[in-house]
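Predict the structure of DUF3857 domain-containing protein.
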Amino acid sequence: MRKFIFSLLLFCLTTGADAQTKPAVKFGKITNADFTVSSPVVDSNSNAVVLADIGSTEFEGNNNGDFTLVFVQHRRILLRNRNAFGAATIEVPLYNGGATALTEKFENFEAYTYNLENGKVVATKLEKSAVLTEKASRYTTTRKFTFPGIKEGSIIEYRFEVRSPFYTNLRSWRFQGEYPCLWSEYKVTIPPMFDYLRTQQGYIPYTIDTVSKVFKSYSISEQNLNTQRTENFNINGEATMAWWAIKDVPAFRAESYSTVSRNLMSRIAFQLRSIRFSDTYTRHYVKSWASTAEDLLKDPDFGEQLTKDNSWLDEPVKLLGKEADKISQIRKTYEYVRDNFICTDHDNQYLSQSLKKTFQTKSGNVADLNLLLTAIFLKSGMKATPVLLSTRDNGYADETTPILSQYNYVLCRVITDDKPVLLDASHRRLGFGKLHPSVYNRSGRLIDPNMPMLVSLLPDSVRETKVTNIFMINNEEGGIQGAFSSRTGYQESMNIRDKIAAGKKESFLADIAKSYPAEVEISNIELDSLNVYDEPVLIKYNMNIKMAGDEDIFYFSPMFSESWKKNPFSAAERLYPVEMPYLMDELYLLTMDVPKGYKVDELPKSVRVKLNEKDGMFEYIVRVQEDKIQLRSRIKIDVSAFPAEDYETLRDFFGMVVTKQAEQIVFKKVK
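Done. Here is the predicted structure for DUF3857 domain-containing protein.
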C-alpha cells in the first residue's frame, strides 16, 4: 500500500534516518556511459532523463551584521529526443525587496552541452553573456539561458549560486517533475536561532531522510555608524543539517480527476516560523489565525478599506434601495456586483487597486470584486466577512498554520436570518449561494479576528445531479418520433451558459445534432432557464428516427448520446488518489414503442452493482412490457476522493458502465 508522505514539523523536532551513499556526480565529469541510461523509471515515453539534480542551502555570516542564504544547484539532463528540447531553456527566479535595495544575486554560473562524437565526449560552453535578465514582476526578475549545440542525445549540465538576504525565502525543492530523475538530493543547514516549518509531501519513499546536529561557527561583521569602525563577532552553536534524497524518481504525469500537481508530487517547502535573537526576545513570523486575521483587516492591500467610512458607497447603497426582507436585499446587492462588474483575474488574494477605483472602473480581480461586495454589505448594515481560500488549481493550503502565500482567492460570507451564505460575485453567471467548483478544495478561512474559523468547502458537499428523460412512439410514416428532456447538473449548466455567452450557441446546438447517427433527426431545440442562474439549464428537443423498413435485423443503441463513451480511468495503475470535484448522480430514463413490424430479439441484461458497498452504485434495468421498452440507467457516486488502492476498483466500475451502456437492443423483423 502506498501511503502519502506529508508532514508539517519544526526542524528541532524532526528525527533522523540512516543515510545511504549517494552516487558520485562531479560537475564536468561526463563519460560515454552517461549517454546510455538504464533505470526502472525510464521507458520509451521518457523524452528526457534528469541524470542528477543536487541542491543545497547554507547560511553564511556577511559584512552587514546579518546572514546570507546561499542556495546552490547542480543539474544534469539527457535529452533523448527533440520533444525534450524545451528542457534546454532554464529560468531561475530572483527576488528583490521592492522599495528596498535588498536583492538576490546570481553567481558562480557554469553551463555546458555535451555531445558524443566519434566515441568522444565534446563539450560546448554556454557563455555567461548569453544569460538574459527579464523582469517578471515588481518583486521578481528571472535569469534565463538556453543551451547551445543541442541535438537528440545531448547531455546538458549547469550549476549556479543564489545569494539571498531574505530569511523568508529559504528555497523549496521539488524531487519530481516532468521527466524521470535518477537522483534528486537536497541539503539544508540552519543556524540554531532560526526556526522553520517544513512541508514535506509526496507518494515516493525517500532514499535518504536524515536530520542531525552539527557544530557551526558564523563570522559576521558590521560597521559601527558612530565610530566608523568595523566590528567582528562570531555566532557558534549546533546547527540543524537536514539531508533528503530520492533515487529513481518517476516522471509526474497528470491524470484525470486529480487536483493540481503541487498537491501530489514529491517536494519540500519551508516557512520561517521565528528567529530567536536572545534568551528574552524572539521574533515570530508565523502567528495565530486570530492575529493574522487582525493584520489582514489592517492591510491596505486587503481589508483596511472595509473599516473606513467609504462615503462613496452611498451611491450604490441608495441605488439598491431597501427590500422588504433581508434575504431579498442581500440577493439584490449580490446580483448588482455580479452583473455589473468584470473579473480580470481569478487568482489573487490581494487587492490590485482601491475599492473606490474598482467601483469606478467596474472591473478588478477576484479580491477586488468580493471585497467590494463585502464593503457594500457592511455599508448597508449587514454582517459580512471575507473568506480566504486556495482553489483546486492552486493546491491545498495548510489548515492549521497561516501561510498566506498558499492562498489565492477571496469569497464573501454574509449573514442572513442567522444563517451564513457564501457568495462569489466574480463569475457573471453564478447563481445566488452557488460557488464555482474550483473553490471546493477542503476549506477556507474566515478572516475575523474574533472567530477565524475554518469554512468547510468539501467536494463531498456538492452533488452534480442530472436527469434525462426520452419518450418515443411509432408514427404514421413508419418511423419513431419522440421528445428529449434533460435537466443538467449545475456544473454542466455553467459550462452551457459560458459557452453561449461566448457566442458559441450555434456550435453548441450543432454539437447536439452531431452526437446522433445520421438516421436520427433533431429539431426544435430549446434551452430553458438559460438566464435564471439559480436554476439548472433544461435542454429539450424533438427526435425522429427514420426506419429503413426492409432490414431483417435492426440494431438500436438505447442510450443515444447520453452514454459514457470512454472510461476516464484508462491507465493500468495510478500512484495518486482520485479526487473528483463533486459527487455525481446521473439518471437516464427511456420509454419507447417497439418499432412497427419488429419484435425484440435480444435485450441487454439488467445489472445493479455497488461501488465499495457504500461509495456508489450503477444500475441498468431494462424490460419489455407488451410493445413498450423501458430502460433505467443510473450512476451514483457518493464519495469524491478515492485512495490509490481503490483505483483498480474504480477503473473496473467505470469500465463496466461504458461496456453496459454501449450494448444494443436487437430488433428482428416479424414475418
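The longest strand covers residues 230-249.
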